[in-house]
Amino acid sequence: MNTSSCRQLPRHSRGFTLIEVMTVVAIIGILSAIAYPSYRDYLIRGALVDATNGLTTMRAEMERHFQDNRDYRTVGAFVTPCARANVGSRTFGDFIVTCGVAPTQTTYTLTATGNAGSLVAGFAFTVDETDRRSTVAPTGWPSCATRWLTKKGQPCA
């Protein structure tokens, strides 16, 4: 009898061991725990630009109205942007820009508020006739009484 025919040939593995699979699952879990919050913050930062753009647009319209009429309020047939149909409250992305209170002859305040149920719910940005800006943000994001903050961890000063 041939001794070489009695030897078993080495078996080739066909698949993964449980330890290899668990290692891959652990690595994916760790990467997800780090990547998801960063990605969510990135999406929020992108949406916050809608608020600042909307406020800048409405502020330009208010200043244009003031330049023409020397008054932020409605003057005769010239209706203030805060009172125009479909302009007094505008949607910019996930933000609604409104006039905080009725404008006076020399003052106004515009507010951009994040829509409920969106990533930007809880955010509110304001600007007035002197370009004084403020940010109110939900927990975990900075708020600031002197400027618009559009990035997590951004200083107020």
Q: Would you tell me the structural class of the helices and strands?
A: alpha+beta
**Helix count from the secondary structure assignment:** 1
User: What is the alpha-carbon Rg in Å?
Assistant: 29 Å
Beta strands, count: 5
Q: Largest beta sheet, briefly? A: 5 strands, antiparallel
Q: Between the first and last Cα atoms, what is the distance in angstroms?
A: 90 Å
The succession of helices and strands, N to C, reads HEEEEE
Low-pLDDT regions? none
Shape: rod-shaped
Oligomer: single chain
Major sheet: arrangement of strands: 1-2-3-4-5
Strand content: 15-25%
Kindly report the average pLDDT value. 90
Residues in helices, as a percent range: 25-40%
Tell me what you see in this structure.
With 157 residues, this protein is α+β, with helices and mostly antiparallel strands. 33% of the residues lie in helices and 15% in strands. The chain has one helix and five strands; from the N terminus they run H-E-E-E-E-E. The chain has one helix at 18-69; strands spanning 89-92, 95-99, 109-114, 124-128, 133-136. A five-stranded antiparallel β-sheet has the order 1-2-3-4-5, with helices on one face. Strand 4 and strand 5 form a beta hairpin. The N and C termini lie far apart (90 Å). The model has no long low-confidence stretch (mean pLDDT 90).
Keywords:
157 residues, single chain, alpha+beta, 5 strands, 1 helix, five-stranded antiparallel β-sheet
